[in-house]
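To the wet lab folks,

You asked to see what we're planning to order before we commit. Fair enough. Below is the target structure as tokens, and below that is the sequence we designed to fit it. If anything looks off to you, flag it before the synthesis order goes out.
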């Protein structure tokens, strides 16, 4: 890993001379714009934790000698190696190094020590656009227009460099202290064949090796159908983001990734009636099932998108010169002397222990209300499970679990449906091995899916020694679950008045599919 961040690296350039960017020759010695410095973490005064990603922690850090404030992205080397993320880290580093646009977060330098890699990024003190939406409930159309225009301006640049971001969403749109947008998180970026970006050997570039493929709620339907990535992917996500700015929630919101995917495939979108015609029309066009039909992706390029009536009044030539919307709250931290209030949960000794922190709950995803969990892999969506359903039956949750046999174990697919029914399928032979129908009468109980790996079975019959015929008892449920989901933690509980029985199956050992 040491040499991964070496500033002198052999590069693999593309020889595409059709672009007006300087072409870099293959196998030429290459120096990063953002150098690898010989700094140590002791050279910085650490402040607030800005956030935690799936393989990193970002902390406000002031360089002691210069007083310059950075957002220091700290990545644990062991964790990155163990999780096979080296190629993604390298790709993000080299891509950020070559991007130069006011709407893209800037990388200044990198350094490393025995345990960690550090990227010194431009500090976005205004936080995430997501938090602005959450604090305000939803944004006004003028506010949304301003932010969307700044994102369009930056996306046009990113696409002109031959890059697909692949994870556009309000959490990755950061704000400067004065309220301008910066696109961040290039950990899922995909360089196109004719990209102007120089890609290092071994940097992630193929989809097969890629597990960072975006976020469920913003994934376009073609990605669910395994079509190759296109610029249209980001424009779909932009449509979802604009919808979220105006309404407060993403357009394809649901309890589980599976349900979200079904909504996306069905293009099940409803517009609140307070959306203007122009906003509704732009979102509708960005959410075109045909990626090349999305404004910005077709032959007319970005001119088509920028000319849309929603952007009436936007001065595209001077977009960064406009006054941004007022932030909902004061920026997280003001720059200046003595402003780095140390967070008690953070000190330099935590560095090198990021993997433990990231792994301890929901994989680093924010647990705040309304946040969307990151996709472990898009493969978790697969229409092959449809064959096991009855007409009209739909899937609520799907998970791979480990079934323990006497000495061995094997993977089994659990499919929870709205019947409600739990189907157990042998995933290699695609054969149903059993199922549990919870009740003859679906009015007796309901299923509440709260996350891809956690659901609750709520029964309406009272907790009595005897159950109505056709209903399954608490101990039956327990025994049945136990019989084929040995690795699951099953929690049975009752509500206070003992009228309802809640059965919670916490599938703590579900595989990351
Ligand atoms: N330059 C920055 N300035 C201020 N805050 C930042 C900056 N970069 C990232 N953050 C904050 O830190 C959080 C973690 O960022 P990071 O890039 O490590 O991961 P992520 O994008 O959230 O998640 P993942 O790695 O899972 O895609 C972000 O959600 C953001 O709130």
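Sequence we intend to order:
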């Amino acid at each position: 890993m040491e040499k991964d961040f070496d500033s002198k690296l052999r590069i693999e350039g593309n020889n595409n001379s059709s672009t007006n960017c300087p072409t870099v020759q293959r196998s030429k010695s290459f120096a990063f714009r953002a150098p690898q410095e010989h700094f140590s973490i002791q050279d910085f005064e650490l402040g607030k934790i800005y956030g935690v990603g799936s393989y990193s922690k970002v902390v406000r850090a002031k360089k002691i000698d210069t007083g310059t404030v950075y957002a220091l992205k700290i990545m644990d080397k062991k964790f990155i190696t163990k999780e096979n993320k080296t190629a993604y880290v390298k790709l993000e580093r080299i891509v950020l190094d070559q991007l130069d646009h006011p709407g893209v977060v800037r990388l200044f330098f990198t350094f490393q020590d025995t345990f960690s890699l550090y990227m010194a990024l431009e500090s976005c003190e205004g936080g995430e656009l997501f938090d602005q939406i959450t604090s305000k409930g939803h944004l006004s159309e003028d506010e949304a227009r301003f932010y969307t225009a700044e994102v369009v301006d930056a996306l046009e640049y990113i696409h002109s460099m031959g890059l697909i971001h692949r994870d556009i969403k309000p959490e990755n749109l950061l704000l400067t202290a004065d309220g301008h947008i910066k696109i961040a998180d290039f950990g899922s970026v995909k360089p196109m064949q004719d990209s102007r970006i120089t890609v290092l050997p071994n940097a992630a570039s193929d989809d097969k090796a890629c597990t960072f493929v975006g976020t469920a709620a913003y994934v376009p339907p073609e990605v669910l159908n395994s079509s190759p990535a296109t610029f249209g992917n980001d424009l779909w996500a932009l449509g979802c983001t604009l919808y979220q700015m105006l309404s407060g929630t993403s357009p394809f919101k649901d309890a589980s990734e599976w349900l979200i995917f079904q909504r996306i495939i069905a293009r099940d979108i409803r517009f609140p009636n307070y959306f203007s015609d122009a906003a509704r029309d732009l979102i509708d066009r960005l959410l075109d099932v045909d990626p090349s039909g999305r404004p910005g992706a077709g032959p007319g390029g970005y001119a088509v998108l920028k000319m849309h009536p929603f952007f009436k009044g936007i001065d595209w030539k001077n977009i960064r010169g406009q006054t941004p919307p007022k932030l909902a709250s004061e920026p997280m931290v003001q720059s200046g002397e003595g402003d780095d209030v140390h967070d008690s949960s953070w000190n330099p000794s935590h560095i090198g222990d990021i993997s433990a922190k990231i792994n301890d709950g929901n994989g680093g995803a924010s647990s705040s209300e309304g946040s969307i969990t990151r996709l472990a892999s898009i493969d978790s969506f697969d229409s092959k499970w449809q064959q096991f359903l009855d007409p009209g039956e739909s899937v609520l949750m799907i998970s791979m679990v480990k079934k323990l046999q006497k000495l061995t174990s094997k993977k089994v697919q659990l499919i929870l449906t709205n019947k409600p029914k739990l189907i157990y399928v042998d995933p290699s032979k695609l054969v149903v091995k059993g199922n549990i129908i919870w009740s003859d009468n679906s009015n007796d109980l309901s299923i509440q899916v709260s996350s891809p790996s956690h659901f609750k079975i709520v029964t309406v019959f009272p907790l009595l020694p005897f159950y109505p015929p056709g209903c399954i008892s608490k101990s039956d449920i327990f025994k049945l679950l136990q019989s084929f989901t040995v690795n699951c933690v099953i929690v049975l509980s009752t509500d206070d008045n003992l009228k309802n029985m809640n059965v919670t199956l916490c599938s703590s050992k579900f595989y990351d599919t």
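Structural context that might help your review: The pocket of adenosine-5'-triphosphate is lined by residues 50-56, 58, 71, 73, 105, 121-124, 128, 171-172, 174, 184-185, 187, 364, 374 (CB under 6 Å). The CA atoms of residues 476 and 482 lie 10 Å apart.

Thanks,
Computational group
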